[in-house]
Amino acid sequence: SQQGEEDPQALSIQEGENATMNCSYKTSINNLQWYRQNSGRGLVHLILIRSNEREKHSGRLRVTLDTSKKSSSLLITASRAADTASYFCATAGPGGYQKVTFGTGTKLQVIP
Amino acid sequence: DAGVIQSPRHEVTEMGQEVTLRCKPISGHNSLFWYRQTMMRGLELLIYFNNNVPIDDSGMPEDRFSAKMPNASFSTLKIQPSEPRDSAVYFCASSYRDRDYEQYFGPGTRLTVT
After folding, report:
1. Cβ contacts of A56 on chain B, cutoff 8 Å
2. Are A48 and B97 inside 8 Å of each other by CB?
3. Is the CB of B45 less than 8 angstroms away from the CB of A101?
4. Distance (Å, rounded) from C-alpha B57 to C-alpha A107?
5. With an 8 Å Cβ cutoff, are A43 and B103 in contact?
6. What is the pLDDT of residues B18-30, one digit of tens each?
7. pLDDT tens digit string along B73-113?
């Protein structure tokens, strides 16, 4: 079963607006990652936040993590048409190896 | 760095035929993952290797699926015999321990079984 559940499943906004996607998970984690998938392509890593961090920024991306609520959010500011893609959260649990568990994804459409 | 390389990019085959998908991970990465993505089931982890050793194959759907990693630079996913329900995009990804498990995905192989 998948660990992460993204919300909403789909989001449509105008160019220039901010987009917020949420992810909830079930078990303890080492870190949480966000990936983007353009149509017909492989997933691309965007940003990683460790379990002892609460907020992280990368360019127009802002990620928050609340381990007490087992949830994370991804904010894309000043969205562009090129941000149109599916966004997935992925959790890396405690323990060895490097398995991550992907959520169901949020499909974002940015309308020019 | 060439990234994760997968071949073929597209495969169309008839039911009952054997299909072999190939993956070359990024040099130096010590873990390799095979995923399957469909509209109905989303992204599913099939199997992953650490230092060429299979660690978890619980996601492999059935005995028709098998995966090997004979060395650090090559892995195969084989389906024999193939069925129409195996139609999906199959992704290979690799990662390196010191990069906090960040995964690098290949472009995928789109498999169609008729």
Report:
1. none
2. no
3. yes
4. 29
5. yes
6. 999 999 999 999 9
7. 999 999 999 999 999 999 999 998 766 678 999 999 999 99
